[in-house]
Design brief:
Keywords: Amino-acid biosynthesis, Aromatic amino acid biosynthesis, NADP, Oxidoreductase. With 473 residues, this protein is of the alpha/beta class. It is 36% helix and 18% strand. It has helices spanning 12-23, 40-53, 65-72, 95-107, 125-134, 149-153, 180-186, 211-222, 236-242, 260-264, 270-275, 295-308, 332-343, 355-364, 425-432, 440-456, 462-472; strands spanning 2-3, 57-61, 81-87, 112-118, 139-144, 197-203, 226-232, 248-253, 267-268, 280-283, 289-292, 324-328, 347-352, 368-371, 384-388, 411-416, 436-438.
């Protein structure tokens, strides 16, 4: 592959020709995981011509680096840097194996070492970071797949020579590759350095979340030196113990980790401890992890304002007082809403796919439990409030809903924690049934405000958060 920075003295035809031969086509050979099936001589000639035309970099695979260097007979222009690369599409080797690979690439005469591996778990990226930060020569270290995204964004923090972005999101050249626009505008990569703090959303799935856009734009607006990443993890405890540096200073937790987070934290805010779920983790300078829950106030205040209008959350008596709140879901969000509703004087019913979990949560808040199927006919009184605390209806499974449309007319207000899409099937059918609805976007913004203030110690820019949420959800 060639990285093209062509001089103006060449004609348009020459430029188009070399771009076609080196940049517009993937000429990484198929034995290295690429698409090129031709012979090395043709490929080498294309790269030699690219060098002659003035490209800044030429990338050749370690396996044929000696052969290519002999082919060009030492005629590489001083301006052109030779990247020698190795790609592993199955895994990320140990630190020792990666260091050995760096030495082998150096030995063939590379100006820049490039190693691309694959993450089967997000903790694999830590090994690449360890090798990069101690490497004594220019190095590009990338870990492919969605789980390896932070290797690309945090490359400047750990001494990476450069990183890669695609111009077109529909034409990725490697798994997990962000767009140039995302790198520059969302992750603010030009300003990432060794002192940049790392924040992020630990979840599975995570790519549907708008939290990285929201938090990064707000961090930039207040000049706080941090970047917020989507972190696709399989095991919360393993992630937190692997990335234990103080620079990894704060995390949002979402499905399925909000309950697990309680066991992972050394200390807990009293509200989070009472709820039994955590959506915000702060790492103190001494390394201790402290857990908080901002879902509680985010969801409850949104429902209160939805019932009684803006400002109702500040009334002396909550509009939830005395009402029957039906919470669907007994996970982290369900726990927060059930706890909050009880604290505001509501009576609580919990419905869940796994009935035993509904029973457990209902007992914790002095409420009653239902099987999910019972919601179809459950109508003990008028004026009930329904709160969906499950991921049903979340992108990409937008046809999901926790309750049949015919049962929605039993409720005065329907709230959905899902905010992507902004109008879920549940909310759409509730509106069609004449029921007042409260979007998950409200909870999203309000809980994010609490998180931002925990992360930074700075008051959250609420108006900017609302502007971003309106634009991107």
């Amino acid at each position: 592959m060639a990285y093209v920075a062509l001089h103006m003295k060449y004609s348009v035809l020459q430029v188009e020709s070399i771009l076609f031969k080196t940049a517009s086509r993937n000429i990484i050979p198929n034995w290295e995981g690429g698409q090129y099936e031709g012979d090395d001589a043709t490929r080498f000639e294309a790269l030699r011509l690219a060098m002659e035309l003035g490209v800044d970099y030429v990338d050749i695979e370690l396996k044929v680096a000696d052969k290519f260097i002999s082919f060009i007979s030492g005629s590489k222009p001083d301006k052109c840097k030779l990247i020698v690369s190795s790609h592993n599409y199955q895994s990320t080797p140990s630190c020792e194996e990666l260091a050995d690979l760096v030495a082998r690439i150096q030995a063939v005469g590379a100006d820049i070492v490039k190693i691309a591996t694959t993450a089967t778990d997000i903790v694999d990226v830590s090994r690449m970071f360890q090798v990069m930060v101690h490497c004594q020569v220019p190095m590009i270290g990338l870990v492919m797949s969605e789980k390896g995204l932070m290797s690309r964004v945090l490359s400047p923090k750990f001494g990476g020579y450069l990183t890669f972005g695609t111009i077109d999101a529909t034409k990725l050249s490697a798994s997990g590759q962000p767009t140039i626009e995302e790198l520059l505008d969302i992750y603010n990569i030009r300003h990432i350095g060794p002192d940049t703090k790392v924040l992020g959303l630990i979840a599975n799935p995570v790519k549907q979340s708008k939290s990285p856009i929201l938090h990064n734009k707000c961090l930039q607006s207040v000049g706080y030196n941090a970047v917020y990443l989507p972190l696709l993890a399989d095991d919360l405890a393993r992630f937190l113990s692997t990335y234990s540096s103080p620079d990894f200073s704060g995390f949002s937790c979402s499905l399925p980790f909000k309950v697990d987070a309680v066991q992972c934290c050394h200390e807990h805010d009293p509200i989070a401890k009472s709820i039994g779920a955590i959506n915000t983790i702060i790492r103190r300078p001494d390394g201790k992890l402290v857990g908080y829950n901002t879902d509680y106030i985010g969801a409850i205040s949104a429902i209160e304002d939805g019932i009684g209008g803006p400002g109702s959350k500040d009334a002396a008596v909550s509009p939830l007082s005395g009402r029957l709140v039906v919470v669907v879901g007994a996970g982290g969000a369900g726990k927060a809403i059930a706890y909050g509703a009880k604290e505001k004087g509501a009576r609580v019913v919990v419905a869940n796919r796994t009935y035993e979990k509904a029973v457990s949560l209902a007992a914790a808040v002095g409420g009653h439990a239902l099987r999910l199927a019972e919601l179809e006919t459950f109508r003990p009184e008028e004026g009930m409030i329904l709160a969906n605390a499950t991921s049903l209806g979340m992108y990409p499974n937008v046809d999901g809903t926790p309750i049949p449309k015919k049962a929605l007319s039993f409720y005065d207000v329907v709230f959905d924690v899902v905010y992507a899409p902004k109008v879920t099937r549940l909310l759409r059918e509730a509106e069609e049934s004449g029921v007042k609805v409260v979007s998950g976007v409200e909870m999203f913004v309000r809980q994010a405000m609490g998180q931002f203030e925990r992360f930074t110690g700075i008051e959250a820019p609420e108006s900017l958060m609302r502007e971003i949420a309106a634009k991107y959800t």
